[in-house]
Specification:
The strands form five sheets. The protein has an eight-stranded mixed beta sheet, with no helix packed on it. The chain has a four-stranded antiparallel beta sheet with strand order 2-3-4-5, with no helix packed on it. A four-stranded antiparallel beta sheet has the order 6-7-8-9, with no helix packed on it. By secondary structure, it is mainly beta. The N terminus is likely disordered. Helix content is 6%, strand content 48%. It has one domain: Neuraminidase (6 Propeller).
């Protein structure tokens, strides 16, 4: 990995050291973590992506790309046609709410809100809202291992939730070389690991969900070409995994492209 990428993550860990006091029950990571692996990338394919979409959550399941978007008055849950970039809005959040991460579990889509302390649950087949859950603190990213939900909240902690009650079963602090990593944004479960965008960076970290240790860092600098960057183009955010075909997709907030990538060890 280049020195710039290491410095970026070091800055995140130093910022985390001065974070607010946490109240969640935590587990202590291993004392001597192995050095994280570093990766670059290769673009396999690019697809159109709506620049109206402030991407907060992304997932792929059963041939369908789902997206949760943010910003007040523009937050929604939608499907994306990969070939055309056209969106099919499934649900729209109240104008007073800012949408965040999404996850699909047992035929239900869960969608977080940022500061509204509320999660929505929809029937994935019909889009019908089934229920809402309340939670403390902020909502950022959301993913699942097929049984439980994993949620980030802007801190270095991942909350592990019961999907039936949304209660916190436990929490795990995420660490990079022993130091906490904050600003974990969109999450995706890939082959037993949690991939997380690190907000305001071009990095994705690969996390062991049991220990919270960052085992890998992917440098995605330069992914969106300069000619595709507009004044309102925002940061990298959005990871989706097609488990059936082992395809990895990434995009960003108001990006004009959604990319299928392959990661390459350095």
């Amino acid at each position: 990995m280049t020195k710039i990428v290491w410095i970026g993550l070091l800055a995140m860990t130093l910022a985390a050291c001065s974070g607010r006091t946490k109240t969640l029950r935590t587990e202590t990571p291993a004392a001597t973590p192995a050095a994280p692996r570093t990766y670059t990338y290769r673009v396999i394919e690019s697809y159109p992506h709506s620049t109206d979409s402030y991407t907060q959550g992304l997932l792929f399941a059963d041939g369908v790309m789902w997206e949760g978007t943010g910003e007040y008055g523009h937050s929604r849950l939608q499907r994306i046609d990969l070939e055309t970039g056209r969106t099919d809005v499934v649900a729209t959040l109240p104008r007073s709410e800012f949408g965040e991460g999404i996850a699909l579990l047992d035929g239900k889509i869960y969608q977080l809100t940022w500061e509204n302390n509320k999660a929505y649950v929809y029937d994935a087949a019909t889009g019908r809202q089934l229920r809402t859950f309340a939670y403390a603190g902020e909502g950022w990213g959301l993913t699942t291992d097929g049984e439980r939900l994993y949620m980030s909240d802007g801190s270095e902690y991942l909350r592990i939730l019961d999907p039936e009650t949304f209660r916190v079963q436990r929490s795990v602090p995420v660490t990079f070389r022993g130091a906490p990593v904050q600003l974990l944004n969109e999450l995706e479960w890939i082959d037993g690991k949690i991939w997380a965008n690190v907000y305001v960076t071009d990095q994705i970290v690969i996390i062991d969900p049991a220990s919270g240790i960052v085992e890998g860092v992917i440098d995605l600098r330069g992914l969106l070409p300069d000619e595709e960057i507009a004044p309102d183009t925002d940061v990298l955010n959005g990871i989706a995994y097609d488990a059936a075909s082992e395809r990895i997709f990434v995009t960003g907030k108001r990006w004009s492209k959604l990319f299928e990538i392959e990661i390459i060890p350095q």
